Design the sequence.
């Protein structure tokens, strides 16, 4: 803390309301009332933070829901205050000729689970985030900040690879139907073929 | 924010923005309030109030080269910040090329996406 600044504020405000103590007065009641959470370690507070991973042969879905103060360390470094929800969809790696077209109607939750057979791509093909509150995050791809309400959906695929992706959340009875497949080999460049 | 902090932020953002994009990106972004963003795909944003953006970023490959074969059928209905129904099929590369040659498969997909 800047001593001069503290002394300066002491003249106009009571000592109790110096910057550090003022922040502590805000944060301690907040932790007591709302709790705080980390995405994978620290202090996950029951019912204020949840993360579920749904793995199948068609996709891997990681959903995060947090309330209160939340620190995010997966895929990005972020700090959020409020209600924060995120859904990451990792595509499966398949051999060529296999895609979502023949089996796009099968949902991850209903499909045969076999984690030993499914290999997932390192990067998510879709990331959906909802935030009601204040948030600031940084990743290898972007730096974002928001105050208020925001809903962002990003579909992001490597341009060198072939892929197919099906997403459907229109039928509430079936739930969200997801299929995401990335072929491992690099895509051929048409200009080089000619 | 003093000059040092501003310079530090500018260096970080500039470093990130300088990276060449190798991804195809499709974004639907709805916000109410104050938002800002800088991405390596070359997009920047600063908004106050209600804002909705739908955009895509296609990487550059150079003259005479194909950026990407893409096939997409989308059906998106937005009725609020928390109420978005999406039914879509997207394919890139070889699956897109194959679908372009199979009108029956395209019709079946279109029926599926718009049926619900």
Sequence:
């Amino acid at each position: 803390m800047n001593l001069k600044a503290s002394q300066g504020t002491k003249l106009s405000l009571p000592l109790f309301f110096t910057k550090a103590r003022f922040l502590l007065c805000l944060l301690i009641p907040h932790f007591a009332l709302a709790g705080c959470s980390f995405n994978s370690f620290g202090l996950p507070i029951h019912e204020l933070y949840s993360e579920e991973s749904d793995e199948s042969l068609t996709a891997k879905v990681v959903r995060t829901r947090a309330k209160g103060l939340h620190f995010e360390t997966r895929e990005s470094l972020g700090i959020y205050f409020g209600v924060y929800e995120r859904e990451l969809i990792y595509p499966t790696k398949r051999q060529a000729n296999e895609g979502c077209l023949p089996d796009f109607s099968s949902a991850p939750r209903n499909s045969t689970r076999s984690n030993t057979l499914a290999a997932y791509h390192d990067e998510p093909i879709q990331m959906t985030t909802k935030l009601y509150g204040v948030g600031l995050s940084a990743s290898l791809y972007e730096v974002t900040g928001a105050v208020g309400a925001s809903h962002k959906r990003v579909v992001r695929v490597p341009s060198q690879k072939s892929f197919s992706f099906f997403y459907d959340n229109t039928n509430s009875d079936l739930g969200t139907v997801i299929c995401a497949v990335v072929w491992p080999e690099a895509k051929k460049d048409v200009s080089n073929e000619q | 924010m003093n000059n040092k902090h501003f310079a530090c932020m500018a260096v970080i953002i500039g470093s990130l923005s300088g990276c060449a994009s190798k991804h195809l990106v499709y974004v639907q972004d709805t916000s109410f309030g104050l938002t800002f963003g800088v991405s390596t795909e070359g997009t920047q944003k600063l908004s106050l109030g209600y804002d909705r953006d739908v955009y895509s970023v296609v990487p550059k490959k150079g003259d005479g080269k194909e950026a990407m074969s893409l096939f997409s059928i989308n059906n998106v209905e937005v009725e609020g910040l928390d109420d978005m129904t999406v039914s879509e099929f997207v394919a890139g590369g070889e699956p897109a090329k194959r679908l372009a040659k199979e009108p029956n498969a395209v019709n079946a997909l279109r029926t599926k996406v718009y049926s619900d």
About this structure: The longest strand of chain A covers residues 142-158. DSSP finds three helices and nine strands in chain A. The two ends of chain A are 66 Å apart (CA to CA). Confidence is low (pLDDT under 50) at residues 1-10, 103-116, 189-194 of chain A.
